[in-house]
Amino acid sequence: MALRNCSSFSAHDSLLRTHPPIIFSSLRTHFSPPVPALNPQFPANGSLCLNRRDLGLSIVAVLLHGCLHKTALAQELELERYTDAMTGFTLLKPSSWIKVDKAGATVLFEEPGKGSNNIGVVVNPVRLSSLGDFGSPEFVADKLIQAEKRKESTKEAEVIGVSERSGQGGLQVYEFEYKVDSTRGGVKRIFSAAFVASKKLYLLNIAHSDKPESPLDIQTRAILEEVLHSFDFAPSA
């Protein structure tokens, strides 16, 4: 997901134009292979039954496919630590995702062959000491969704969840989850985290396809949430 397809960064740009830097500089399944067909036998009475051998083979096939799928997913999304000591942040990212250049992004990682799935960070100076000076997590989430809805390409946007946690040295970190349906890329699930440190706003955006025909699966979601929770301030030594 090149950021040209990432609705979250565009929304932050829109919000930046609406709210000056004194408030915010930028706030801005897959289909499983078929299980081998069973060998049903139809008795004379018309009832469907499976012999013991077919049933045993079917169970083994289902269990084996599930194990192989989880193993492949774990290998594909193995996480590694990325730290930008100069800008001052750290996070986990899938080791297979590649770093690409994008105007407006401090750093951007994309899933190979699926640029619409990406992880991006934007860092901008602000006059705030903490996110609490701007508003509650719910207030910030509302501003974020309003910015999304103002885009011509957005068909629908809704907040899924809002939370707050403590980061490095008790740092106030807001986390958001929302879903966007747009004419550019269809339905996407967005995970965002934001904090203010050293008069800078740090914003993380994780975008992943979440279309009805290929929804975000549980394993991938868990990994993306781990990335979300890993985002933190990394003061220079």
Automatic annotation (TrEMBL):
Residue span, PsbP C-terminal domain: 79-232
Recorded GO CC terms: extrinsic component of membrane; photosystem II oxygen evolving complex
GO MF entry, a single one: calcium ion binding
Name of protein: PsbP C-terminal domain-containing protein
GO biological process: photosynthesis
InterPro entries assigned: Mog1/PsbP_a/b/a-sand, PsbP_C
Organism: Trapa incisa
